[in-house]
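User: I'm putting together a teaching handout on how multi-component assemblies are represented. Below are the sequence lines for each component of a complex, exactly as they appear in our records. Could you produce the 3D structure of the whole assembly as structure tokens, so the students can see both representations side by side? Please keep the chain order the same as the input.
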Amino acid sequence: MATIEVDGTSYEVDGDRNLLDACLGLGLDLPYFCWHPTLGSVGSCRQCAVRVYANAEDTRGRLVMSCMTPVTDGQRLSIRDPESQAFRDKSIEVTMANHPHDCPVCEEGGECHLQDMTIMSRHTERRYRGLKKTYTNQYLGPCISHEMNRCIACYRCVRFYNDYAGGKDLAVLASKENVYFGRHEDGCLESGFSGNLVEVCPTGVFTDKTLSRSYNRKWDLQSAPSICSSCSLGCNISPGERQGRIKRIVNRYHHDINGYFICDRGRFGYDYTNADQRIQHCSIRQSADVTEEAPDYRDAINAIAVELAGAATGGNLIAIGSDRLSVEANFALQTLVDEDNFYSGMDPVQHQLLQSVLGIYRRPGIHAPTLREIESADAVLILGEDLVNSAPRMALSVRQATRNLSFELARKSQIPLWQDTSVRNLAQDRRSPLMILSVAGTDLDAIASLRLSAAADDIARLGFAVARCLSDRAPAVPNLSPDLESTAAGIADCLLRAKNPVIISGTSCNTPSVVESAAQVAMALSLAKSNGQIRPSWLSYVLPAANSLGLAMLQEGNDDNHLERAMQRVLANPGQCTALILQNDLYARAEPSRVDAFFGNLKSCIVLDQQPNRTTDRANILVPTQTDFETEGTLVNNEGRAQRYFEVFATDNPSLRDNWKTIANMAKAWVNPGTGQGLPESLLALARCENFDDLIALLKNRGGLFGHWDRAAPNAAFRIAGLKIPRMPHRYSGRTSLRANIRVAEAKQPEDRDSPLGFTMEGAPINIPGALTPGFWSPGWNSGESLNKFQDEINGHLKGGDPGLRLLQSPAATDMSAATSSDWFSVPAATPTAANGRLLAVSLPRLFDGEVLSALSPALAQRAELPQLEIHPETAAAVGLVEGHIATIRLESCQLKLPLRFNPRVASGLVAVPADVKTAGILPPVLLPAAVTIE
Amino acid sequence: MTELIASTANLPAAGEIEPLTPEERAEIEHEISHYPNRQAATIEALKIVQKYQRWVSDGKVKAIAEVLDISPDAVDAVATFYNRIYRQPVGQKVLAICDSVSCWLLGCTELMDHASRSLDIEPGETSSDGRFTLLPTPCLGACDRAPVMKFEDKLITNLTAETLDWILKS
Ligand code: SF4
Ligand code: SF4
Ligand code: FES
Ligand code: FES
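Assistant: Of course. Below is the structure of the complete assembly, with chains in the same order as your input.
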């Protein structure tokens, strides 16, 4: 710590920071452009000048760039002295000489850091009357617009895109006053993190093209705290809505998870919620070809209740949940039909994988790290995940982790870590070790110290061998080649030498041994590193969906209630069962002909879903569901953190109710007509749930992992000084006239009985808990940079607390030496080399079109690569296939035709099948890995 | 049973790559061998291509990127940084008149105007007969003999309108 005096007031600040960072952290206003909390300082914009004094006697001082000046103890400085103010004013004036004067037509207007800083610098008058430079803009793809005239040459974009996110196709072109930030030619920005440019650029050069289609200012967008449901990481997001449509998504800072950045799937994948094809009404279908619209929601629910009651009496009621929907919706469904009749909707392998992950996370010696922790790791071992595609934001964290070596070198050379250019120059290409074992190579391979492609079981065997090297109490791996033996020893050595090693694996390979081998390494590492005191190893699993772990928790210890069991039950009782399916297209979950048989043998099928798909086609009664932007719920991310998301806006469609509420309404209708006798108490309790907190209370009653469920976020009764928290910005315009075309009188604002947020502009402006903060905005700070004002220090925790509740605390120090042989997993056999023209097909996750809902967004769909089968050239030669050939893969009743592409990173003997949603509809990834014929 | 055959994406077609000639490739590979990583040879590669082609086209930028194993954007960032790497075709001879401070004090503005008028082009353009390209350039390090012009690979010091006329007529 150091003491500094700013304009006569003394403050305690962190001595490792620069003056700008320290001042902003204190809540002081000081303008800047090129500095960024995580990108560090380069001193290029000259906007952050302050006066520092040499000592107590010095009255003249000198101007310095605060972002380039380290804090020193006893330092005296002034932000307010006239000369530094004048400097900042003139600096802006020069910057503005070439900047257009047309904020009203600029899409950054109203949330522009340049506007804010201009006003903060008190630059009010332009003297330059000459011509301004103009540039040609580029086409950068469907997500990002480009308006180079607005550039102030702060270099933030390239520093983020290339240096931080590893992008290759954005460059600083030309020099001096011609400098141009763009691509070598028009074309889509390739990086999966390109959307962050919208927030990183302090002006309107890079803006959100998806917002642009039907544009609104920040002040006209209604927002609520939300959680991305496009992968298992649970990045915090702030969606903006106007007139019933989600217009855009911006990052919502979470210290432990997404920090300042999210991926493009999370940012641009929201359009499914606006899709015309969405299911809007209930419908009841008596037979295959007669569709009867049931406009009244009540009628549909009553009809369902009759079905449910009938089926339940005969013991023929089953329900299938969804790993993408909230814990509460799944819990309500589970309660409705009773635990024994509730099935996860996952195939057996995935279901058991998740149970196994949950079990492993709860073992002693294991800690599920946050992304922030992963970022601090000084050695990373990845087993079987292609993070950029399966857990994008984690890939960004791993990329930063490889920079820890450069920070260590900088510390040794006494270079402050925020001196970005110096630190990068010092390290050059040197990085902390990143070891990647994958089936077909990954986007992070380029910065990996070790990369190896192998079939899943072989990856696992190598993992087990690493564990064995770490602890000879772990079982040995038979028949490992000397080469692999020494690779394993190298990995083990690297993990041992690291201070904070992290092991990353997941469910993408759909292979239990991979998940187990990662756990084995982590356990062996804990043993090897423990000297009396156990330090849990960091082990992170990437999971299939946003709430995979939450669903697994609802079924903890139940290895059986998966989709296959549900199917078996139906097939064993043909024509008897009624199934209630919660937003889960079963055709992507099992072999399609088996799904056909399942539906064919149902008595009645009730489906709740938001988008039409092959499962909704089979419904006798169909009820629309809300998207995550329209309802509230809790998702449990891959580290076991329960995070609440809130309704962004109230839909006015009477058939669209909260998903949990629709299920509770079914309970109500079932119980009401005097049929309550003899029904289980849990069902009666569900029927009594009037609002979200009632349901939370029921869930909390389950105890265990759910025992503190109410702590994930404040409940609906929470108030600040008696006030709710507004979803609308204080300057929201046109509220009184938005619906004047329908009715002149102002519509009453919808009430929200389920949360402490209001659909209004009025309410508590400050001291909002982190979990309830819809977005960031502060007086004088209209852009996202206002986040400064919400953090306890720059890059720190939200003053209102980090959102969410960690459910899995590693058990208190347990004696690891107590680990018995039964705690170790057993080693799988090596993958046999493919014979007689058969290859092992594996599934590859896909960033832009690999997740069911986000893939419906046109902006993402357009960015997706063409689906192709990938194969090693030698493997192809062995089975006589040539590149570009349209190959056919057969597996059970599935037949997939795709062009073949050579990729030398695919492990030999394998053919990699893209897991884009279209391909998945033909060959569900859960059927892989499997031996297939290919021709 | 549904089948899926990929359709083509509807993104704007990117420009074609313009392959390196065998000489260009050989010389670039030779340069690369002097450096610890291929990327370090970017400037040399650009100079080599320019030596043969007199300028560096978009297609050649891509070809250079390919042999250096970096993105075309990274190559273009270097190519456009240096104003003597030409990213547009130039005339048979390039006149580069220094416009930095010493030359400015000694009248380079008038000389530039003179050249401009004589050739009937603006600085940055090529004469209609394709013989000359006129460019401004930063300080050439010969301030003591200002005004200065680089004419192809020759340095012309104490430049005058007469010298210019003589060059343009020759
Ligand atoms: S485009 Fe934006 S981020 Fe990039 S240099 Fe210009 S102003 Fe800065
Ligand atoms: S898809 Fe995953 S990584 Fe991307 S924003 Fe959503 S949660 Fe974050
Ligand atoms: S913020 Fe300090 S120079 Fe740009
Ligand atoms: S200013 Fe022209 S040569 Fe130096």
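A couple of points students might notice: Chain A touches chain B at residues 139, 141, 168-175, 180, 183-188, 429, 862, 865-868, 886, 893-899, 918-919, 921-922 (CB under 8 Å). The CA atoms of residues 47 and 88 of chain A lie 6 Å apart.
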